[in-house]
Design a protein that fits this description.
By secondary structure, the protein is an all-alpha fold. Helices cover 65% and strands 0% of the residues. The mean pLDDT is 85.
Length: 112
């Protein structure tokens, strides 16, 4: 049996490396479906998370992860707003084209 230690010690709480999300797949989704420029920036910060974790820089990884998350949220909002605006203008165009179609032939073309 080991004798008790006379020197007190403190437990070091080291956060697990997997506890910092990189949001890489969400960033790729934003590139493909929502907003290309913001998705590219989010992928950059996702890569920064992985680089910081490789260097064991937990604070830098958390900072880059928070930035990637914020940019991904912004990309989804901008992407959905652009899709909504595009749908609105498509509906307006269809209504305008429908209203511009004549319902009967003008008398100019009436040969009878």
């Amino acid at each position: 049996m080991d004798p008790p230690s006379a020197v007190p010690y403190a437990r070091l709480e080291v956060p697990a490396l997997e506890s910092v999300p990189s949001y890489k797949y969400w960033s790729i989704f934003n590139i493909l479906c929502c907003c290309l420029p913001l998705g590219l920036v989010a992928v950059f910060y996702s890569g920064q998370v992985e680089e910081c974790l490789a260097r064991r820089d937990i604070a830098g990884a958390k900072s880059a992860s928070d930035t990637a998350r914020t940019i991904n949220i912004l990309a989804v909002v901008v992407g959905l707003a652009c899709i909504g605006v595009a749908i609105f203008f498509m509906i307006q165009r269809v209504q305008l084209l429908h209203a511009a179609q004549p319902t009967h032939f003008p008398s100019l073309y009436n040969l009878g």
